[in-house]
Amino acid sequence: MATTSRTNALFALALLAGCTAPRTGSLADVQPPVAYLETLPPGALVTVDGAEVGLAPLAFPVRDEARDHAIRVTSPGFEPLDASFPGSKLAGARLELVLRPEGFGSQRPLASGEPSGLLQAAVALLRADRPKDAIAYARASLAAGDSPQGHKVCGQAHRRLGDRDMAIKEFSLYLSLSPGAPDRKAVEDAITATSKDIEMTTPKRPLD
Fold first, then answer.
1. What's the pLDDT score for residue 31?
2. Exposed site from 45, 151, 169, 193, fewest CB < 10 Å?
3. 3-class SS at 30?
């Protein structure tokens, strides 16, 4: 559904300054430099130059720094991402590639380090009943510096997964960071209901 030109716009390449000693030609042949790759969602299948290299996060060798390398990332429920990087920039670099959920819409921005788009994707994933993926995207949004809404999404997702303690923690974080939130009453009700769920499922101590 997505074209290569569209999917190429979905990634962010973070180049971390390498602190490696200069490589000789012979040493590079024996031990080529590596690139480090992380994906959203985690665990996506990575193919480099047509060969599968494994599930992210991972590192892969850059055997030829003089040419471009094609990277394809796929995961069920997400549009495939196709990108090409010069080998000279891949060597020693750290990449963060973000897949677009199916049906998310091609006009909505979505990239690593872009908090608003990541939060919107998290909400879309939660609505699609994919709470684990929603948590991953919400946490990435929070790490990028977005509003506390990411904690509310995580709370809703954890509650759906049955992890009630984490749900209460995330809801409470949301309220502590947004004391004037317009949905405060609804979130407080969710905390109360989740706490009651915990009480109902906690094993009772046997009578002596």
1. 86
2. 193
3. helix
pLDDT digits (tens, 9 = 90+) for 15-26: 333 334 444 555
CATH at 167: 1.25.40.10
H helices within the chain, ranges in order? 4-7, 25-30, 87-90, 115-127, 131-143, 149-161, 164-177, 184-201
Residue 109 lies in a domain: no
Confidence (pLDDT) at 10: 38
Mean pLDDT for the chain?
A: 85
- Give the list of residues 6+ apart from residue 21 with CB closer than 8 angstroms, or none: none
CA 108/CA 40 separation, integer angstroms: 16
| Confidence (pLDDT) at 208 | 41
Q: Is the pLDDT of residue 165 over 60?
A: yes
Half-sphere exposure of 104 (CA within 13 A, CB side): 29
**Length of the chain (residues):** 208
The C-alpha atoms of residue 122 and residue 195 are separated, in whole angstroms, by 24
